[in-house]
User: Fold these one by one.
Assistant:
Number 1:
Amino acid sequence: MQCATHPTVETELACSRCEKAICPRCMIQTPVGARCRECANVRKIPTYNMGTDTFLRAAAGAIGAGAVLGTAWWIFIPLEGFFFGAIMGLAVGYGVGELVSLATNRRAGPPLQAIAVAGVGLAFVIRTGLLLASDAWVLETLRFDLTGLVALGVAAFVAAGRLR
């Protein structure tokens, strides 16, 4: 018997539903036996199946969370030490990741992780911009902003992990 999809391949396999001849390359293993692609009805997991509207909602959530959390990060800057910077990174990362997750109805995946990390980057840019606008001496401090960079790394890691 010849495979229905690949006529040059000889096979002894058949779909357990429609009895169409299939080769090992065409076969999809299901709990009820080997099936052809049509009968197996292979679909993406709904958590990772996204359209344009999902990406737009994710971007809106990331921009909103980044703006609000970046401003909050700037407000709490007088408390910032190395430890508080790491805590602030956890808070910003979790906040952005959670808001992107809520905006997309708990979807996940690499594209949403990238959007959330961009939202964290926006929060960092807003924090840095507000620092520059508020004090002239901050420009010298920003050159050695190790605490802010550590917080940025922690926040990006947490935001991406929230959407894994």
Number 2:
Amino acid sequence: MARVPAVLVMHADLSAALLRAAAQVYAPSEDIATLSNEGLSREALEERIQAHVSAWPEGGIVFTDLFGGSCHACGLRAARERGDVAVVSGLNLPILVDYLHNRDSYEVRALAERLRQKGLDSIRLQFSPAA
């Protein structure tokens, strides 16, 4: 099974920061692209995402930070004619670490669904006991 490639597309320097954090928790991963929307028009950002997506022979995942934001919208447009490219929004550290651990074991669609569930499961609510 081929490794599922990915590109992290986020606001400011969030994608690079998340990848650095994942390297501390999991392992360094130099084969993952990061993109920032900072200083780019929507068209320029879409073109940069498209350059990554078009190089993937068997699909991949575009990770974004915010559903409906400019990074997400450009990711959707860049992947619009590729049924084998998933756009996963709401990327957090648990999702990214799970992706790194499982990107060699799943096909794109199954991995994307697994990561969606991981994101849901990673959100917990706890209250400290009343004093």
Number 3:
Amino acid sequence: MRADPFFTIITPVYNRPDCIIRCLESISGQAYNSYEVIVINDGSTDDTLQKIKSIASKFTIFKLINYPENRGVNFARNRGIERAQGKFIIFLDSDDTLTIDALVTIEKSINQYPNFFHYLFKISDRIDDKNIPDEIYEYQFKDWLSGKASGDYVNVIQPSCFNGLMFVEEFRIYESLNWLRVLRQNQKQLFIPSVVIQVERDRPDSVTREYILDNKISMQNTYNFLYKFIDWYHTDFKTLGLLNSLRSHIKKGFFLGVALGETARNEYLIKQLESTTFERKLYKFMNNHVFSPIFYRLIIAKSQYNKIKKKNYENQPSYLLL
């Protein structure tokens, strides 16, 4: 490995003894020699740590960071970013694997199109996805805010893009809250339609299941996320002329707030709503504890319906299905 690696691969892991070896072997098996791997054991309580050590001891590319308590993927990614020495960072989840020529493919693409700080590549379950281009494409910040660009990609990004914009550790998930700040600062990202990661979906221990609004904790976490999301980005929505998208997010947050009795914070959401006087009065009327149990039961029922209909919570979190 060269003194200054081209890539830093960051892999947070929590209680994944069944797949972490497979993940790490997909990295060590690359026909490539300019990379480092930072594995963050985020408080695993099983034999995940032992399995990491068993393979890390065989290869100098692996750097292990071990934390005794589980703090969530945002915390773990930040610790990896802080220690990254590579020119570009690649995030690889512990239940996913690199394709056999992934790093060669990525470096070749960067060298061919060198004027970007942030590149995006395909994951395996988006091969036939009609919502993403089938050719090289330059995304803009507006694409992400409007929802034209959405879902999972492989992010290959320079560490400097995170200066002052680290993942929000207040939330264990909801990485998108911070990604939008990074995307706004960079303004453009180059998408390369090459599959470089094989993903595993529908695991029973997937953190994306925390998005499902079938209990009060997930509702509260989603409301807190939406409240901060609207607070951080409402000006961008208005500046870019995306008022309908903003209204949609505000309404989702508002009804969750009513269900949770968050009437005081809901007043702020109503202020951000570009609407008629009548509609504002209607929202103020509904922003009442009297309606809390009604909306709470409706949201639970809707969540259960979505699960029955087998909605894809991986690409469309349940707060989008209200």
Number 4:
Amino acid sequence: MNWAVVMAGGKGTRFWPESRARFPKPFLKFLGRRPLLQETVERLRPLFPPSRILIVLQQELVKEAARLLPRIPRKNILGEPVGRNTAPCAVYAASQIARRDRNARIIFLPADHEIQPKSLFLKAVSTALEAADERPVLFGIRPRGANPAYGYLEVSGKRSRRNGIPFFTIRRFHEKPSPGKARGFLKRGNFFWNSGMFAWRLDAFKAAVRTHLPKLYPAFRPLGRKSGKKALARIYRALPSVSLDYGILEKMKNVHCLLAPFDWSDLGGWAAIAEFWSSDSKKNRIRGDVLLLESEGNIVKANERLVALLGVKDFIVVDTPDALLVCPRSKAEAIRDVVRALEKRKAFAYL
């Protein structure tokens, strides 16, 4: 059977001051009436029944996730005692699926993407699950520009088609490049954005983990005996913090790449979210009660009070009841440094 794993463990530090530990990015309503986590789960219907959708997120957020997702069985909402990146997250979920379905095929996907239309997304997911063999199928995105904020997939020139969707073989993974390298990738044409979504056959996934991260999978065997939260916390603390890309995928050869037929956006920061907000004649993008005078190219989000800008260009301003962010748009990726600085100061009220 086909299963879906939604990875919702990210803190969303680039969305500070709105994204906080007690209310991180997947629980925020950035684009509509529903939080991103709800939107992601809803997008998976009708391909996956609730019984075959697993959510992995921070342990302290399990109750809130269960409230938001009443159709998802409580046993399918998995809490991580500590964050250990995507490899332990995926193995944790896969270990639970393996207890119920040894022949499972799994789609792993983050909880913070905007994807349209749903019909093409479901077609691509179904095709990827069918195509997954001993190698996984990664979703590549045709670049809309030379964006250095994404990882890139360098693919072979040859391609095939399944259900009308182009497939390639990945030659090499590239971490987030410099702006110059990103422009070079765009010109060459055989580089796609790495979406972070991938389909994998369970037995092939387990084999890859044993080969490339041999200490990781056996650590979860005690969970099958319902060893409880304390044992899970002990196991997690001993795990390396490693991504699936770095720990496994980059070490594999001839990995499949599906070129996504849908419109996709990684909602990684304020600039990405603001692309979905209306723009005025001065290219300002705003939400809330905002007054702009002689200002252009700004991203402004007000909440409970008026925010006024005079003579300001290319800034991000986010106002919340207890914290205010002001930074140049060019520093959007560095907003997470504010969170790190607050952690060092032990300013927990703002985290």
